[in-house]
Prior knowledge:
Layout: H1 15-20, H2 25-28, E1 38-52, H3 54-62, H4 67-91, E2 95-100, E3 103-109, H5 115-133, E4 135-136, E5 144-161, E6 166-171, H6 173-184, E7 189-193, H7 194-199, E8 205-210, E9 215-221, H8 229-237, H9 260-267, H10 272-279, E10 289-302, H11 308-328, E11 331-339, E12 342-349, H12 359-377, E13 381-399, E14 404-409, H13 411-422, E15 427-430, H14 431-436, E16 444-447, E17 461-464, H15 492-508, E18 513-517, H16 524-537, H17 557-566, H18 577-585, H19 598-601, H20 612-629, E19 632-636, H21 665-675, H22 680-692, E20 695-697, H23 698-704, H24 710-722, E21 726-728, H25 759-771, E22 778-781, H26 784-793, H27 796-810, H28 829-832, H29 854-862, H30 868-885, H31 893-904, H32 913-916, H33 921-938, H34 942-958, H35 962-976, H36 994-1010, H37 1014-1027, H38 1036-1055, H39 1066-1086, H40 1092-1112, H41 1115-1132, H42 1135-1149, H43 1156-1176, H44 1179-1196, H45 1199-1215, H46 1219-1233, H47 1239-1255, H48 1264-1274, H49 1278-1281, H50 1284-1300, H51 1304-1317, H52 1325-1344, H53 1358-1371, H54 1379-1390, H55 1410-1416, H56 1418-1421, H57 1431-1436, H58 1448-1453
Parallel strand pairs: 5-7, 13-15, 18-19
Antiparallel strand pairs: 1-3, 1-5, 2-3, 4-5, 5-6, 7-9, 8-9, 10-12, 10-13, 11-12, 13-14, 15-17, 16-17, 20-22, 21-22
Amino acid sequence: MATGEREVAPPLWPVEARLAALLPDLLVFRKPRRSKPELATAQGVLLGVHVTGFTALMDRLSLTCKSEHDMDKLAHIFSYYISDIVEHVLCFGGDILNITGNVLLALWTVKQNQLSDIITLVAKCSLEIQEKFGIYHTREGQDLQLKIGLSAGRISQVIVGDEQRQYFLVIGRDVDDVRLAQRLAQANEIVLSWNCWKLCEQYMFEVEIMREDEAVKLRDMRIIDPFDFDEHFDKCLNYLPHYRTSTETLRTALELDPDSALEQTLRKHIMTNLLKKIDEGQPMEYVSELRTVTVVLISLEFHKTTWVLHLCHLIQEAALYISTVIEKGGGQLSRIFMFEKGCMFLCVFGLPGHKKPDECAHALESSFRIFTFCWENLTETKLVSISITNGPVFCGVVGAVARHEYTVIGPKVSLVTRMITAYPGLVSCDEVTYLRSMLPAYSFKKLPEKMMKNISNPGKMYEYLGHRRCVMFGKRHLARKRNKNHPLLDREKELEAFRVAQQGCLHQKKGQAVLYEGGKGCGKSQLLAEINCLAQKEGYRVLPLELKEADSKQCFYAIQTLMAIFFEIDTCPGCYRQECLHRQLRGIVEEPLHCLFNDLFFVKDILLFHDLQKEEEENTKWETLSANAMKSALYSIVPTSCEDQELYVCTVKDDVNLDTVLLPLLLKEIAINQLDQLSSEEQLLLKCAAVIGHSFHLDLLQHLLPGWNKNKLFQVLRALVDIHVLHWLNKDQELPAEPIVVQSSVNIIDQTKEEKSGAGLASLRRLQEELFLPPTEVLEFGVPLLREAAWELWPKEQQIALHLECACFLQDLACRCGSCCGGDFVPFHRYAVCSTKHSSGTSRFCTYKDTGSVLTQAITDKLQPPSPQDSLQFQEETSRSQKAFSSEPCRTEGEFLDQVNKKLAQPSSEKHLLTMKPCHCEEILKLVLSPLTQHCLVIGETTCAFYYLLEAAAASLDLSDNYMAFFYLRKASSLRGQPSAFSFLKKHNMKICQFEEATFCRLRSEVCFNMGQITLAKKLAREALRLLKRHFPWTWFGVFFKTFLEKYWYSCSLTQRPSNPRENSKKKLAVLQQRVHCLSLLWQLYSLEATASNRRFASLATLMQKNSAEEFANEAQVVSTYVDLSQYSQNMGNRDKWLHCEKMAIEKSSLCWFSREGLLAMAQLMQALAYTKLCLGHLDFSIKLGFQAHEICRYLKKPALENLVLSILFRAAFLKKKFDLCVHVLESQWGLISQGHDVLGLACFYSACLDLLLYGKGLLCRSFGECLRFIQHYEHSCVLSSQSNVMLGVHSSLAMWFAQDLQWDLFEYHFSKACQLVKRTNASLFGSHGFVRFLECRVLMLQKMPGGVFTRISPENHSQTLKYFKEFFSRCVTCPVYHQWVSELKASVMRYGKRESMFLTNIIRPLDTCLTKILIEEEFLEENNPSGRNLGLQRFNKVADVKENKGTEETQECVC
């Protein structure tokens, strides 16, 4: 007989079916009775299955010190193993009574004359179970095996409890027999009780008689003709009225019609925390959690002579009292089960929704009350034993879909059962419970250590003696000591309260008290330790005292202990206490009154002296003291806020992954206490949101919450937002209303409720939805601690399943936004990782198909190449756009700008819709790519995680977020494994393709370049090119040979390529794109140093970049490449090539089809044209182009390019002497760079601020002090050390400032810095600007040298200065905007011998420079006027009125 495949739960069961799945058929189909307890008898066959090795496996896992992970693994093994057995029993018609620990008990209820046939059926079932599931091999090396016992006869069914909560159990001699048969069986054996053997068809079995134990060991069944087991099975089905009637389910109880009376009856047998989750429609797999609980096991052993009915009444009385006491303490009575000598009650404190801070103390006190009650009130009780343990367990559902139970599994559960046997007649607890209870030590007694079966290290055990009046003093120390390495932060308010009370006590001579109140874990102990340290430092004596909750039950306990500490009698032996007290009180209190301290300090030997009047006076004074002590200020301690708090940097080791670091146990307990204060719906939402991440989108959250509609979701969210557990993101961070991708195959909103008919109901529903509309669609956790704790509650298996759901949901969104035309952030990434051996487009992710990864299959489907129809449509759209845009080819800058303005001015119907939508790639990075990498890591898909980490890093660089790019690349490095000094010894944790290896190197090279690590950036860029099969030489000979190949052979080979670039494979396009990026990086790296060797390498890199771009055949990429070549040629001073490349870029731009990529290329080209016109001196045209480029950059959200455009705009406006416009530009630039931490951008900004301070006619953007502080802080950073062009201008401007303030020592310092940098600069705009400032400093030095004001700089002469002028004109050929002014400076130097040249003021200069001001005011400054030294500061600290023409052109330009 086939048992069929494993049953799968339907998506949504009715409540009755979900309740029935948790209960046996005996309860579902019974007829309720009014009497309590209910007692019924029936005939049947019992099957007991005991899983051996389970406790040993728990013990082995507990030794690994990964308790929660091991609990999850243990529960998964047991649930998977037991579910197969449950389904097999159900297929044979059995009724699963309970699953208690590692024991399963099943029943076949039949009539007396049918027992023999059913015994044969159950025996066959047992043999098949042993054959199929008799041994289970685990990876831990501990095998699980089965011991099976059978019994038959009369069974008593008992239901105890009240109208709110009821418990079911079976009792009787045959129940004891099945447990005895289980114990007699060895592993993989089946034992029948003697009564069962007498009732069965004995001739059908091969057995071994166990006469001493009165049992029978079953070997096998004899199949004798004409006996056929299938016929016998069909016969037995007639005896089983509740056997399944359909193949869709294993139990008839799951298919019952809705019945409110039955539902109310079944609900009484389910725990309240589970009922809430069932009522809310939570799936059963969402119910299970890993949490720390306190387990209490109560064993009542009765006398053997007790009658069954009387025994039922005893159990009823005990159950009512135990459930009442346990529930008052915050626990729940989980189940009741019988054993041969008595009854056991399993109670659990800390289940979901019932967590309390002091659960261990409540468990101990409740247990002692139960212990006392059972001894005193249950007369037939022979022995009462209670054991308590605390630790992490699995709280959840085990079993099959059709029949499962809510239980707790873990080593602490096994330990509590062993303690009952080891320490009978006591209230015993383990060491963890003893420590966490925080009860006084005198309430416990240490027990001797005993060996326990299958538990290698049970630990110390204690007997709880109950709460007794203390006969000793409390502890004289604080709960926590002050740690010098952990400073106390943000507690100034609380410390000030102590100081005020301290001063009041000292000066006013009045007693003061300060009371601090706060929740557990908020820092009260740490605060008291700090106060203790502060008081001791000031020389005061401190009397510390540790109080516990139990101490509140003793009158005057705190004052009593404090006085004992004060008199120093708390630590001395009792026999010396009298002498010590006499010595302390002598001279203070009259000796006849010493007797008043007898009871207070437990002194028995002092002569008693009774004076009622004196005693009354003392009591009055005591009450007065107590009343004065309560005059205090109450301060509530709350978690520290981040406002006005000093920042600390946390350095994380390379081998530490913060995503996998679990919370400390105490911290997790505090968070879970807070979680359990919420409703079960709120807890479920937080647990699902915790899986998504710190920030989450509503659509994905609803996807993880089956059966939730928008209304319910918004109601729960609003409640959590109101208590600040969650909060909506700001409006500037919210997602757009329109979709952020072109297409999505994911059905985001799951409609679960049936639509109601009628216009009135529809309008009402719409009104309700409008009332609950959220301000945004993205939320984040306001309390990150709750998120971590909620995530850790999920069992590992369910964690993986939920992360898999999130990954499958997000994978279709993991691309550029719709306005960017989709695609990968690493161009053509998905095609580059596909295997070229399969025409079907399968990818490298297909290697994981054998592991059953759903995400792998989903990603594989995503990476399929587009269909031929899509490609054809794409080409036609491209060609149409090209034709439309290139109908009028532009040849000059003006024509190009007119063409762009014409295209942008077209009506929206004629434009590509994607071009005009704002970019949302930043939201995709934060809400899709970043969480997706974490989801892949959790489910073990490291190759997919590496793929998305590269995408996230590329997206971060695209958004100019270098720090986050470094973060993602560092995570990718940890996935690849530790590097080795030798390539053949490198060990990688995963296998990645060569393209991704090259992309990884290229991204790291770009990050290193942005961080100023130039040498490493060059090395990584070369390595990336090597992996891309485009080697870059190391020597000058290699450069010469490679240049020859690139100029002739490679160019010739390009002309022979196919004319249609779309015929090239996408993988080749991906490789070419990475080559272009690497070569662009290389020429920028080599351009930083103006040496002949670097010029050769940079020139070769630009040539190779041009060839690769032409091979790439992408119009926008070609335009960007020519812009790069133009920039390089200008930096190197090659005027002809500079203008030629600019012309080529303009011509190629006519072929760009109007996409976002093309628009970006045009913005780069307009920036390059604005830069060119600025260098050539066409300032008006440069400003016009700059504004146009800035508008597009703001729209494209390209911060790096926008910052560069603003720098050009400022320089053009500055040279045009439009200083108001300069201020507007700088404010826009500050708003851009202040959002991140761009050191180079800040350096350019402060350099511009210095220029405005020196030459801006009094206009002020940033103070000189702020500029100087920035330079002093970042002067030696790697980023600025590599930027010689910018730093030359900065140090020269600082030198000029200090010169005008006559601070010649600071002038010398910064001028010497500039002298070191001038040789390393090139002909770029920043380099030329810095060179001009440097020449001004040299001219000033030449003028001031005769005065002897310089002490550390060697004397200068005219010839040395003129050499620098000659070098400027030879180097900065491509920046003629400064040539006129430099020529005038040179002329002034040549006329320096003539005195009248010192007062030359009638020369027309492009700038009123600081040098001119110093020359004019020389005589005034030389008069040693005390106010002269501060003349410059006084002039530049105020804002002068600037009177300029506000013409039409300038008004238009000032819109920044």
